[in-house]
Input
Amino acid sequence: MIGLGVLNGMAVTLRNFVGSYFVKERMITVQYPEEREPLPENYRNFPFLLFDTDDAEAGLRCVACKICEKECPPQCIYIVKSEDKKPDYMGKPQFYPKIFDIDISVCMSCQICVEVCPFEAIKMDKVFELSRRERFDALLMRKDELAKSNIYYHKIHPIEAAEVDGNLAAAAEAKKKKA
Output
């Protein structure tokens, strides 16, 4: 019969409309800027760099190995390694990134950079409001904008952060026993 699909669709719409008045969890509208839905634990958006101490420059976990730059499919990561070394968060002298930039206009949030990082220095953020007025330079996030503390990481991904910190502590303990 012609129009039966339209009638079925209208019946579903009517059922959802009436049901939304009686069941609170069903069909709610979030008034976005004022109210926000909590993002799930596994939500990922753009990468950021982790640092462990109070100083973002001194405690940065990244040692500029450039693995993430090589593995990035859209080639949106740009790293320049420093010529000198500085002590890392464990006290061992390491190279550090003199320049670490990510072009967020190109980044496709694939998380490959997070997976290949051997130092647990790159993680995915939950911030999705990154619109800018300028078109080019404003969409290039530099090292100081990308650096976020381990405390921040524990706030946005508590389960994953506890696991990562546990693995790093176990590796440091094993290294101490070995030495």
User: Anything to note?
Assistant: Residues 32 and 38 are 12 Å apart (CA to CA). Helices lie at 4-19, 67-71, 112-116, 143-146, 150-156, 158-178. The first strand starts at residue 47 and ends at 51. The longest helix spans residues 158-178.
